[in-house]
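Is adenosine monophosphate placement plausible here? Inputs below.
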Amino acid sequence: MPEILVVGSVAYDDVQTPFDRRRDVLGGAASYFALAASRYAPVHVVAVVGEDFREGDIERLRAEGIDVAGIERRPGRSFRWHGRYDYDMSAAETLNTDLGVFADWHPVVPDGKRDVPYVFLANIDPDIQLDLLDQVGRPQLIAMDSMNYWLEFKRDAVATVMSRADVVCINEGEARQFAQTFSIIRAAREILDLGPTALVVKRGEHGAMLFLHDGGVFWSPAYPLEKVQDPTGAGDSFAGGFVGHLAAVGRTDPVELRRAVVHGTVSASFAVETFSVDGVARATPEAVDERYRLLRSLVDIGAGVVGDTGSRSE
Ligand code: AMP
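Reply from A.M.:
I modeled the complex. Tokens:
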């Protein structure tokens, strides 16, 4: 089974929604990603935590079969993020970001992991993402994510990471911010012109769009959920299902990329049902399959309808 290497934040989050609040809960882009992707393939995490990080939280990742040998512990505070959502639970408003031990950290890919074929650069300082890329051989697939914080402070470095990635995954607002345009289509063109073969634009409850360099476009609606408790980690869990599926099948052709978008959507649906990583950790293979099937049927007009061209004049 092809393996996955991820670098990104492992953090403590303080999350407020209009209905509830949780402080000091396990979060971070790499944590969500690893839990989601580990449902599909073995995952190795490269990250750093501070002295305040609870051993039980590392153990929680280990207990899910995730390789945590690349998570360093250093003197200082762990990464902390404080965010808030409004009533529509769409984009998070960041109230505080404390990089802690991530501020002056250089990732070290553990021995024997330099040739892992699937690499995910989860949300973190783009200079850390580039540092990791310089340590790996030529993986079969490099995917990356970023967010408004880094686009604001380190836009050029984020653009360099994009140019070295095969797949870029970002959310709608960040695609607009990056390309300085309202049009998602124009933003997609601009990002794909940097070099990646595929771009996934995550649009929250409006689903996710896949844009291919050769002009192909695909869309998956979001999984319809009655209860959304905390959208934090939706994007990272999406990436976990997406990259996890590609690693599990060992192919990245357009059909598998489309399937990967649906798997990403399913992973994200588990993440948002609870605070912290509990939902994504609870997703069983059976539950994943069931949601995958439902999502497919959501946009299937009717299996075997011959000549369904959409034309009313037939
Ligand atoms: P998502 O909701 O998928 O975009 O990601 C949310 C996770 O990203 C949270 O668990 C945070 O700990 C983490 N996060 C927030 N801001 C940053 C940042 N500037 N860099 C890296 N990770 C971050």
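Short version: The longest strand covers residues 21-27.
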